[in-house]
UniProtKB/TrEMBL annotation:
<feature type="transmembrane region" description="Helical">
    <location>
        <begin position="221"/>
        <end position="239"/>
    </location>
</feature>
<feature type="transmembrane region" description="Helical">
    <location>
        <begin position="81"/>
        <end position="100"/>
    </location>
</feature>
<feature type="transmembrane region" description="Helical">
    <location>
        <begin position="174"/>
        <end position="191"/>
    </location>
</feature>
<feature type="transmembrane region" description="Helical">
    <location>
        <begin position="135"/>
        <end position="154"/>
    </location>
</feature>
<dbReference type="GO" id="GO:0004497">
    <property type="term" value="F:monooxygenase activity"/>
</dbReference>
<dbReference type="GO" id="GO:0016020">
    <property type="term" value="C:membrane"/>
</dbReference>
<dbReference type="InterPro" id="IPR017516">
    <property type="entry name" value="AbrB_dup"/>
</dbReference>
<feature type="transmembrane region" description="Helical">
    <location>
        <begin position="198"/>
        <end position="215"/>
    </location>
</feature>
<dbReference type="Pfam" id="PF05145">
    <property type="entry name" value="AbrB"/>
</dbReference>
<feature type="transmembrane region" description="Helical">
    <location>
        <begin position="285"/>
        <end position="312"/>
    </location>
</feature>
<keyword id="KW-0812">Transmembrane</keyword>
<keyword id="KW-0503">Monooxygenase</keyword>
<keyword id="KW-0472">Membrane</keyword>
<keyword id="KW-1133">Transmembrane helix</keyword>
<feature type="transmembrane region" description="Helical">
    <location>
        <begin position="50"/>
        <end position="69"/>
    </location>
</feature>
<keyword id="KW-0560">Oxidoreductase</keyword>
<dbReference type="InterPro" id="IPR007820">
    <property type="entry name" value="AbrB_fam"/>
</dbReference>
Length: 340
């Protein structure tokens, strides 16, 4: 009952902000309302399978955009991906050194706090059963900062981005159902080895494969499904404030803001350089070089009418580089321990 009430409040606040013309008001309103409820009542809404739903919806919607994908497009991405890897190393170095040298954090906490992505794999790799509250604060600041920043910088939803799909025939419906089943099965496999956002990863790739084999050419994700995914994502982000007190947020917030600011400024600098070298749009490049928050960036990129495939390709490569390797190392370590 509490979860339902929280969802209804999030819908009301988000819809109001959206109606008043606030860019991405549905996302920001659901975050704000849920964060206030979670922090004051120490209550976190129970939404089983919700993150999987968000990832699959956004993944399929992104995969459908690969209809225009070709080898020439892939080749054009390679130079930008080179800038991405250098940018990631610079982000980690600058922000980590700030926390280590200026804020006086130890080396391990500094590294975990500036890790540009999900925490699950790296926590396991470093044998950390529980992150300290200050590390969690930095990641919350990062997630919230990116969400708010890109929401206000990118224009509000472009309704033409998601045209209504025609009524599904039996054949198309069965193909879409098989797509969802394959995404869930493969996503659970990746989940078992510690890969973050696994359902989004599989949904993008499998949908792209379906498109290239000539399936789902006329299919579009219904707008309501993307709106609901936006709402759920906002509730999930807001719920993370349940275990963070205001005192902890204020105490470690300054270090979090500075480290996240350094990462975002580094991404902006590399985006500016890459734009001059490659002749690409600097805002799109900046979104592509953001340190994490793939679901949020996907939502905002869709709403702003940006080149979602270009942006998401960079984030998928970042995830594979930063998450697959730690996950494989974790599994290898466990296998060696079981052999002993």
């Amino acid at each position: 009952m509490k979860t339902l009430l929280c969802l209804l409040i999030a819908i009301a606040v988000g819809a109001t902000l959206q109606y008043e013309g606030l860019p991405h008001g549905l996302l920001l309103g659901s975050i704000l309302s849920t964060a206030l409820i979670a922090s004051n009542l120490r209550f976190s809404p129970t939404l089983p399978l919700s993150l999987g739903y968000v990832q699959i919806v956004l993944g399929i919607a992104t995969g459908l955009m690969f209809k225009s994908w070709d080898s020439q497009t892939a080749t054009a991405l390679l130079p930008s991906l080179g800038f991405l890897f250098v940018c990631l190393m610079a982000q980690i170095s600058f922000a980590g050194l700030w926390l280590f040298k200026v804020s006086g954090w130890n080396a391990k906490d500094s590294l975990i706090a500036v890790y540009p992505g999900a925490l699950a794999a790296v926590f396991d790799l470093l044998e950390s059963e529980r992150a300290s509250s200050k590390v969690i604060v930095v990641h919350l600041v990062r997630l919230l900062s990116i969400t708010v920043l890109v929401s206000f910088l990118i224009p509000g939803p472009v309704h033409l981005a998601f045209s209504e799909s025609p009524a599904l025939g039996l054949n198309t419906g069965l193909i879409a159902l098989s797509l969802i089943v394959v995404c869930i099965v493969l996503g659970r496999v990746l989940l078992r080895i510690g890969v973050p956002a696994p359902f989004m990863l599989t949904a993008i790739i499998v949908t792209g494969v379906y498109i290239k084999f000539g399936y789902l050419q006329e299919f579009q994700m219904p707008q309501w499904s993307v709106d609901f995914a936006t709402l759920i994502l906002g509730v999930l982000i807001g719920a993370k404030f349940k275990d963070i007190s205001l005192a902890e947020l204020l105490r470690h917030g300054r270090a979090g803001v500075m480290s996240v600011g350094l990462m975002l400024l580094t991404a902006a600098a590399f985006a500016g350089i890459a734009a001059r070298v490659l002749g690409s749009d600097p805002l799109t490049l900046w979104m592509a070089y953001m340190p994490g928050a793939i679901e949020t960036i996907t939502i905002v990129a869709f709403g702003g009418g940006l080149n979602v495939v270009f942006i998401l390709t960079h984030h998928l490569v970042r995830m594979m580089a930063l998450h697959f390797a730690p996950a494989v190392m974790v599994q290898a370590r466990r296998w060696r321990q079981s052999e002993l």
